[in-house]
Amino acid sequence: MYKIFLRFALLVLATPLLLVAQPEFASLDRAFAAQRAKAYEAAVAAFQEAASAAPLRADIRKNLAYTLLKVGENESARDQFRRAMELDPADQSVALEYAFLTYEAKNDQVPNKALARRIFDKVRHLGNATAEQAFQTIDLPLAQGIARWTQALQIGPESFSAHHELAELAEQRDELPMAAAHYLRAWQLAPARKSVLIELARVRTALSEPQEAIAALLAASRGGEPRAAERARELLPARYPYVYEFRQAVLLDPTNAALHRELAYLLLAMSDPEAEKEFQTIVKSTPKDLLSAAQLSLLYSSRREGAAAMANRSLQAGFLKDALHYLTIAHESDPANYALMLKLGWTYNMLHDDKSAVEYFDMASKSSDPAISSEAAEASDNLKPSLELIRTTAWILPSYSTRWKDLFAYGQIKTELNVGNKWFRPYLSTRLIADTRPTDGAQPLSERSFILAVGMSTQWRRFTSWAEAGSAIGYTSGSMKPDYRGGVSWARRWETETKFFLETNADEVFISRFGNDWLSYAQSRVGYRWFVMNANLTADTSRQHWANFVEAGPGIRVHIPSSPKNLLFSVNYLRGLYLVRDGVPQHNTFSDVRIGFWYAITK
Amino acid sequence: MPLRNSVFFSILFACTLHGTNAGYSVVGPEAGSWPQVLSSIGLLPSTNAYVTVARAQTPESADWKTYVDAGGILILEGESHLSGSFGFISDHSVISIASIVDVHAATSLILANPLILKHFSTPKNSVVFAKDRWSDTPVMAGMQRGKGAVLWVAMDPGKLGFENLLYLPQALADLGFIQPFHSQRTWAFFDYSYRTRVDVDYFASKWKNAGISALHVASWHFYETDAVRDAYLLRLIEACHREGILVYAWIELPHVSQKFWTDHPEWREKTAVLQDAALDWRKLMNLQNPDCFRTVSTGISEMLHRFNWDGVNVAELYFESLEGAANPSRFTPLNGDVRREFKQEHGFDPIELWSTRRDPASLRTFLDYRALLARHMQERWLQEIEKAKTFLPDLDIVLTHVDDQLDSGMTDAIGANSSHALLLLAKHNFTFLIEDPATVWNLGPQRYTEIAKRYPASPKLAIDINVVERYQDVYPTKQQSGLELFELLHVASLAFPRVALYFENSLSTVDLGFLSAASAIVTRYEQIGSTLFVDSPHGFLLSWSGGAKIDGKQWAAQNASNLIVPAGPHSIQPAPLTGSLLTNFNGELLSASSFDSRVDIQYSSNSRALATLDCEPSKMAIDNQPSTVDRVGRTVLLPAGLHHATFTCK
Question: Which residues pair with A567 in a beta bridge?
Answer without folding.
Answer: A599
